[in-house]
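Minutes, structural biology subgroup

Action item carried over from last meeting: produce the structure token record for GMC oxidoreductase-domain-containing protein (Lentinula detonsa). EB confirmed the sequence was re-checked against the source entry. Recorded below for completeness.
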Amino acid sequence: FCADAQTVAFFATLVAAGLPPIVDLNDLVSDRAIGGTMPSFTTDADHTRSSVRDRLVNVNQSESNPYLQFALDTLATRILLCNSSSGTPTAYGVEIAPGAALPVASNFQGKAILRTENITVRREVIIFAGVFQSPQLATNGLMLSGIGNSSHLQEFGITPILDLPGVGNNLQDHDEISIIWRMKQNFSLLNGCVLQPDPAQDPCLEFWEDNGHLNAYSFGGTVEAFTSQSADSSEHDLMTHWEPAYFPGFIRGDLVSHDI
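Output recorded by EB:
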């Protein structure tokens, strides 16, 4: 795929702009690197996108798995805590709201009084923050459970269990701006492709299914550039992500397109 003329041209433009190629974005030596790269995808032996999610689904559906269970369409709202014999707060479970949804979910019905129930554990509670509303459990969940700035918690009638003033601070939004162009020429890597879910309508998808998943649909043709705008920071301030896609228009309003 790297021999594709337009992909090579993209990288040549990045290099000319002072953004050298990043060979492996996951390599430790590439941490905080400035440059351009193609994202690496995890694929299985059949050249199909694969991830930890697929492994979890397989385990969950296995009849020989008595241990791992998933609660879908469920929010974790609070960590249940008690004081151990040493006086240290110890988690013994979580409070959940079955049927609740994040505002970004398709089944979100607006604000409502949540019906909650408790799940208790024998050994430990592992907190894992997801993609959307990461602070909801890792931060707000701690504060609702009594961990945070004591004076701030008391303002909302929450009994402080552990005074940690840093909880809930230093959170930042990750803004995303999408710009859509209509190309003057077809992207040669995807010649004949219409990016549709039905093989009968998309020759490239039909070829992908009939020929061992060996075409551009196993790759995506994505290019990324990492740049930094702040002279006093070594962290990435800006990531530009480019990929060809089927885009019929915005959900609301009219699509304003520009040929390039």
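Discussion: The two ends are 23 Å apart (CA to CA).
Next step: EB to file the record with the rest of the batch.
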